[in-house]
Design a protein that fits this description.
Largest sheet: 9 strands, mixed
Order of helices and strands: HHEEEHEHEHEEHEHEEHEEEEHHEEEH
Number of helices: 11
Helix content: 25-40%
CATH architecture of the domain at 127-353: Alpha-Beta Complex
Oligomer: single chain
Strand content: 15-25%
């Protein structure tokens, strides 16, 4: 938390007042530590009342955080009846780290890499759209069995609409709740950015399923987006059992996911789980023309830890919280799936492979077969890179009670 000038003056005043009061006495001796603590607490209450409330209306209240969407701040409001009591916690706008320019070879880097290094330390951005009660509040979040966390650019309206009506539909499935959240930043600039922000706001009001932060939503900010979500989850949905983290162009058989997760042995979300398509024995791509270009100025090692492809993976609430806690001491890396693996590694945990998660697409054994035959997809958990039209048709085919699959079309 960054303390404002007004709060700084307040603390200085309290310190000066308490110091003089504590060191005075008829006996010339200092007051006991216990007495000092009580007096300090009382002084703070009185001055807080003067500054933040009406002097005559000062009272105690249990405060809870509520984000102010218009400013980069958290407003603390009471849970009780005293609605006048508020306290604002704010942070300054993140400034460019100009010392990044001193890194060897900095001037030879592409502009987007320079920008990443300039602002790599920035981890807090104001929320434009929030859903603090999405999981029923922190206490009620344990009732959410599977939270679908879907990365989506503001412009991808059509994809979101299809998902809302297919595999990402919020529902009670096999006795447990599935909830849905799209996470997004901002896109483009000027009038186009305003239009896209308005689009998300309209969707947000209608569906209550969008989280948006005020940062530029690019490939190199995917890790930032993930960490912002985990910070939000820690505050609003800390007891969610499991999560699917994926892109908005994946086809996820969430019916199968619920069945798989419910059948896990001795794991109700309170133990480690991070399952997907494993990628091993690879390192950073040093080709400046590659989308995945990572120069030594960003990541020095020539190898990545074992990780799950970021198209889509399943994780427990326990593992999500662990990743978030580890992230505080690990500098950001643009490749989000690798960064999560770095956090797991620091915690002594590892991802695991699941044969039903096809993050690189589904390989059909028969070249003459229909690649979208629903029987190929009936038992899988997830397939990456699906067009919206195929997704809608596939979901309806899989839920057709008349679907009859021969052995030749089962994966």
């Amino acid at each position: 938390m960054i303390i404002s000038l007004k709060e700084g003056k307040l603390l200085c005043f309290v310190n000066m007042l308490s110091s003089r009061f504590f060191n005075k006495g008829n006996s010339g001796k200092k007051m006991s530590l216990v007495t000092v603590s009580f007096v300090t607490f009382g002084v703070l209450i009185i001055i807080s009342c003067v500054f933040f409330l009406n002097y005559n209306n000062c009272s105690f209240a249990i405060l809870e955080p509520r984000l102010n969407h218009q400013n980069n701040e958290i407003v603390w409001k009471p849970k009780g009846d005293n609605k006048n009591l508020t306290y604002t916690e704010s942070w300054l706008k993140c400034e460019q780290n100009k010392t990044a320019a001193n890194i060897a070879g900095f001037n030879s880097l592409p502009g987007h890499i320079k920008d990443f290094l300039y602002y790599r330390h920035c981890r807090h951005f104001p929320m434009l759209l929030d859903l603090p009660d999405k999981c029923g509040g922190p206490e009620g979040s344990a009732d959410v069995f599977l939270l679908l966390v879907i990365k989506s650019l503001p412009k991808n309206y059509n994809r979101r609409e299809v998902l809302r009506n297919t595999w990402a539909k919020e529902r009670l499935q096999n006795g447990v709740w599935i909830r849905r959240i799209f996470i997004s930043g901002t896109q483009d600039s000027g009038f186009e950015e305003m239009t896209l922000n308005n689009l998300l706001e309209i969707e947000h009001l209608k569906y209550k399923d969008i989280l948006q932060w005020d940062f530029h939503d690019t490939f190199y900010n995917l890790t930032l987006k993930q960490m912002l979500f985990l910070e939000w989850m820690e505050r609003n949905c800390p007891h969610v059992r499991f999560m699917l983290n994926g892109d908005d162009d994946v086809f996820a058989n969430t019916d199968n996911m619920v069945e798989y997760l419910k059948n896990l042995e001795n794991n109700d979300g309170s133990k480690h789980l991070f399952a997907g398509h494993l990628v091993k024995n690879v390192g950073p791509i040093r080709d400046p023309d590659s989308k995945y270009y990572i120069p030594v100025q960003v990541y020095k090692s020539e190898s990545y830890p074992l990780y799950c492809s970021g198209g889509g993976f399943l994780l427990s609430g326990y593992t999500a919280r662990t990743i978030y806690n580890m992230s505080h001491s690990i500098v950001l890396l643009p490749i989000d799936d690798v960064y999560m693996a770095m956090c797991l590694e620091k915690a002594g945990l590892h991802p695991e492979s699941h044969s039903g998660i096809k993050a690189l697409g589904l390989q059909i054994p028969d070249k003459n077969a229909d690649p979208y035959d629903p029987c190929f997809y009936r038992e899988i958990l997830l397939v990456h890179r699906f067009l919206s039209v195929h997704m809608l048709v596939m979901w309806h085919h899989l839920h057709n009670p008349q679907l009859n699959c021969s052995l030749s079309t089962k994966m």
